[in-house]
Design goal:
By secondary structure, this protein is α/β, with parallel strands linked by helices. Helices cover 41% and strands 23% of the residues. The mean pLDDT is 88.
């Protein structure tokens, strides 16, 4: 049996987050979807995922850069991908160079 990853998807748009999770599930990965940054952090504390896909503004008071920082502190081996509808170069720089994100993606 092929090894799968456990992926946490954090985003304020439930339809978009679920679409990401469905695509990952179709490729054999296990996913959990949450709607706020605080929920993402609690989820990482409960069960560290292999990968976190978080929006820059996942909902709630905690943004994606904080989710990134807290995830790296709680589970250094977890890869984090930050996505945003606002292709801000400074956010990408902060996420990758300073925050240790695996990648940064902008929605079309």
């Amino acid at each position: 049996m092929e090894q799968t990853a456990f992926v946490l998807v954090a985003g304020e748009d439930p339809a978009r987050s679920e679409a990401i999770a469905q695509a990952l599930r179709a490729r054999g990965h296990a996913c959990r979807v949450v709607g706020t940054g605080a929920e993402a952090i609690r989820s990482v504390e409960d069960r560290p995922p292999d990968v976190v896909v978080t929006e820059h503004k996942p909902g709630g008071l905690i943004d994606g850069l904080e989710v990134l920082a807290r995830t790296r502190a709680l589970s250094p081996e977890t890869e984090v991908i930050l996505v945003t509808a606002h292709g801000d170069a400074s956010v990408a720089r902060d996420a990758i160079k300073e925050g240790g994100a695996f990648d940064f993606l902008a929605w079309p």
